[in-house]
Amino acid sequence: MPLGSFFNEDIRQIINDNAIPWEQLAGSTILITGATGLVGSVLAKVLSEANTHRSLGIRIIGHGRNTSKGKQLASETGIEFIGSDIRKPLPLTNSADGIDYIFHCAAITKSSEMVSNPTALMSTEADGTRNILELAAKKHCKGLVYLSSMEVYGQVSSPEPVTETGLGYVDLSSPRSSYPESKRFCECLCTAYASQYNVPVKIARLSLTFGAGVLDDPSNTRAPMQFARKAISGEDVVLHTAGRSVINCCYTADAVSALFIILLKGKKGEAYNIANPKACVTVREMAETAAKLLGGGKVSVKVDIPEDSAKLGYAPDVAMRLCVDKLMNLG
Q: Which of 279, 253, 216, 260 is nearest to 9 (CA)?
């Protein structure tokens, strides 16, 4: 089955998920920031297909910094696309237009940038999120989901699955901490706007998310994609750490379904973990799986830790497992 067929089946699976109250979205206007990224682009494609197959009449507005990718996405899906700096007010085509729902996906997620350009990362998170929360308050949005990360938990030492209240240690002396700490700040900003301005914002703490349709995007540097590309090309998979960190994973289609559930069923100001509790492996195990399944028996996993490995921006070793009971309780 061609890769595109897998991806199309994922989209159909989401659209046919009756746990999602699709009727609530009928006739609405939905804004997706970071629309050219992995999760944002899938959200745009799902909503576009939902318009066709469920006759929802949704107006979809995508926003991103990559204008060329945005134009391509618009041509594929028929959405409207705005290209601008997320830290500035969005140049909406009609200032009188309402915005009913927002998925705020925009973020800098490349590990190396967390070390090389931490100030830009933090301003993108903080100023961009404040900008979107202000827009949501001004437009009296019905719902907003802020995409956070499991990295907000920092270094947690607990044998039990980590719930949404189990925050751990983050080393503020490391520039790499610009990512988890800015995510924490933005979550606090979300709860502040929910409390002070009654903005119906919910927080999604995503685990490592990947799936069909992203392998051929060279800008996607998530570990599974890098391992897969190497194995498929017949090259050894080389780790720049010992690979001891435990990765909580989630398939893209499941993560996107969860985002719709959180948007429409989640509680204002609350955070929800998104992960597959059965998909929890070390980095080393993930690399070995990719090598075995995709390498044709000719690919090995090697460890080569460079002297300047700190500049690569890898997260500190963690061994936590996320608890998803709160999300499951939404249905």
A: 253
Radius of gyration of the chain (CA): 19
Domains of the chain: 3-212+250-277+320-328 (3.40.50.720)
Spatial contact of 183 and 170, defined as CB atoms under 8 Å apart: no
As given in the structure block, the two tokens for residue 159 are 């044998």
DSSP secondary structure of 136-177: HHHHT-SEEEEEEEGGGG-B---SSPB-TT---B--TTSGGG
Q: What is the pLDDT of residues 242-272, one digit of tens each?
A: 787 888 999 999 999 999 999 999 999 999 9
Q: How far apart are the two ends of the chain, measured CA to CA in Å?
A: 31
- Phi-psi category of residue 313: left, alpha or beta, with phi > 0 → left and psi -120 to 50 → alpha: left
> Which three-class secondary structure string do you get for 210-250?
ECCCCCCCCCCCCHHHHHHHHHHCCCCEEECCCCCCEEEEE
